[in-house]
Write a structure and sequence with these properties.
Elements lengths: L8 H16 L5 H4 L3 E4 L8 H14 L7 H8 L4 H11 L7 H17 L6 H12 L3 E5 L4 H10 L9 E2 L12 H10 L6 E5 L2 H9 L3 E5 L14 E3 L8 H10 L5 H13 L3
Parallel strand pairs: 1-2, 1-4, 2-3, 4-5, 5-6
Helix pairs in contact: 1-8, 3-4, 3-6, 11-12
């Protein structure tokens, strides 16, 4: 989901985010700003929250007597903004929820119940993030989730000293596929968009990254609904397969007039064929 239900989260977001930003969002050192920046989407990329949101929405609709199949909710939810989801729900099942806030409240309550009993971090993605941090790279999170949820993820993952800057849904008006969120992320890091590498899992996110003029690595997990990644520079089934050397190779290939998608497919095949 590109923008997550805010509900009561918005009321607490400013306090949580202020505490975090005061402690951690210092200026980026000049020598770091000259390097590449690595920007991670959160939902569906770092944590398997997309499927939890699908489950939560499915349960919220079933609780109101809507006989909807899980696969139908997958198509309704994955990679889309909460506003778009609620608009479709209201059009198809007008009596399910009186307003968006009522559905948000039930959905978020169910989401919290599920995640309290389940570790939803995606191992390969977390491994890459930690590897980049350990190598001294500039790493950030740009998400459609609230700042409060981003803070929770950072704290739970022990990344308080590694991620100094992040962007949540309260920070911008136009959601993905508009490039606003990624451009804001680059601005806060002090890095030119062309020096940013974005990790995304959804069609809208890939389009947003490319519209921002950034290199984009798409995560295509076989258990997730199909996404359109023709604009991505590189497609991987697991982000732990990513290596920085791939950036230079792909940049060189793309400068030789080959379409980006062909480069992606060719290099993706090389990665998969590695022992």
């Amino acid at each position: 989901m590109a923008n997550r239900p805010a509900g009561s989260a918005r009321n607490n977001a400013m306090t949580a985010e202020h505490t975090w930003q005061t402690q951690h969002n210092s200026e980026v050192p000049c020598h770091m700003a000259q390097n590449r920046a690595f920007i991670f989407d959160m939902d569906g990329t770092l944590i398997d929250s997309e499927r939890v949101w699908i489950e939560a929405i499915h349960d919220a609709l079933r609780a109101r007597g809507v006989p909807v199949a899980f696969a139908e909710v997958e198509r309704l939810e994955y990679g889309r903004s909460w506003q778009d989801i609620y608009t479709d729900v209201k059009a198809r099942w007008p009596n399910a929820y009186a307003d968006r806030q009522a559905m948000e409240a039930v959905t978020e309550k169910r989401y919290n119940e599920i995640t309290a009993a389940r570790d939803i971090r995606i191992p390969g993605s977390i491994a890459l993030l930690r590897r980049l941090v350990d190598a001294g790279r500039v790493v950030s999170i740009v998400s459609g989730s609230t700042r409060r949820r981003i803070c929770e993820f950072i704290d739970q993952s022990g990344l308080q000293d590694a991620i100094g800057h992040f962007v949540g849904c309260e920070d911008y008006h136009r959601g993905k596929p508009a490039p606003d969120c990624f451009l804001l992320g680059a601005e806060r890091l002090g890095v030119e968009p062309a020096r940013c590498v974005v990790f995304e899992d959804a069609t809208a996110g890939v389009r947003a990254a490319k519209a921002a003029g950034m290199f984009c690595v798409a995560l295509r997990r076989p258990e997730c609904p199909p996404q359109v990644f023709k604009d991505a520079d590189l497609i991987l089934p697991d982000l732990s397969l990513f290596a920085e050397e791939q950036l230079d190779l792909l940049s060189e290939l793309q400068s030789q007039t080959e379409p980006a998608c062909q480069c992606c497919q060719s290099h993706h095949q090389q990665i998969q064929e590695r022992p």
